[in-house]
Amino acid sequence: MHAWPASEVPALxxxxxxxxxxxxxxxxxxxLDPGPVARIxxxxxxxxxxxxxxxxxxxxAFDLVQRVWLDTKRQVHYVQNVTDVDxxxxxxxxxxxxxxTELAERETALFREDMTALRMLPPQHYIGAVxxxxxxxxxxxxxxxxxxxxxLDGDVYFSVESDARFGAVSNLDAEAMRLLSAExxxxxxxxxxxxxxxxxxxxxxxxxEPSWDGGTLGRGRPGWHIECVxxxxxxxxxxxxxxxGGSDLAFPHHEMGASHAQVLTGEFPFAxxxxxxxxxxxxxxxxxxxxxxxxxxxKLRRDGVDPAAIRLTLLAHHYRAxxxxxxxVLDTAAQRLGRWRAAVSRPDGPSADALVEDIREALANxxxxxxxxxxxxxxxxxxxxxxxxxxxxxxxxxxxxxxLLGVAL
Length: 409
Prior knowledge:
single chain; alpha/beta; Rossmann fold; five-stranded parallel beta sheet; globular
């Protein structure tokens, strides 16, 4: 599976700062210190309805992580999956009378278009669950053969008790985990499971549903968590720098994935930091496909909204904050974009050296994008009120906003 084209990231003078970021597992801020190549895995979409503003907010957060790392003169190895076979996708295809593969391909293509328009940097490896199955099957077999997994009516489940560190990502108690498992694709009440929280690794073939050769597992399809583990281990290995996604992925998805990987390899940790973006609401409720209360990036673009204004709307909220989409947030972003473009269109202006460092400092401080926007606002206001004589300043501002915030002026 191919990703989307990359926009050029301008080089800035000097060097950026190492990223301090909130880690869900330790529940505190840690300083990331990758080697020459920083490694990041971000969980991708299930392509039955893409791309809403909640998605865009999440991918914007991890785009900023990449931009901070690139500014430190590191390379970035970014991997993202596509869950192109799963119950919600199959259910939507049946509901609408579509072939599930065509639905997945169409929505994935639309997601690529939205990411391109928003200037999100693409992953080096963009991997679908279906194409990852040959690498998933041996991992499930290993877990089963070592006693970390068991069969139940042909399905294969992972035993969470096989990982002594289970629970260390989300830091939730058993009852909270059980409730979230029921809400987020698990089956804690299925009879015969060793532990209600045990997640499915391999689903035996069901009549009328797609299935693949699973070797000694029999025909079936993979569970959600092992999909990402197989892709991450194959392309990044253990101990990569950031595992990212929305806050609703901390449990069960990232918790289970970490346990799968740690039991498979005998190593710890799966990721150095677990980073989670906040939830975007509409009309007082979380924006989600199941509720149908969605604001789509593609719809905004069709209505003539500048993608740079959409991106500025996302940047105006701290990535970890939950916030609510309202029409006025987009209006505010469009006005900001107009002020910034007017400011950099002049032939000279106030020195921008301090501004570049202010943006760097804000982003290195747990991706504080609102503080970075405020710094650019101050420069634009000074440009409007007083001007300046530095002929290179508008160009420096334009390149810095592009390189660090992903907004083309």
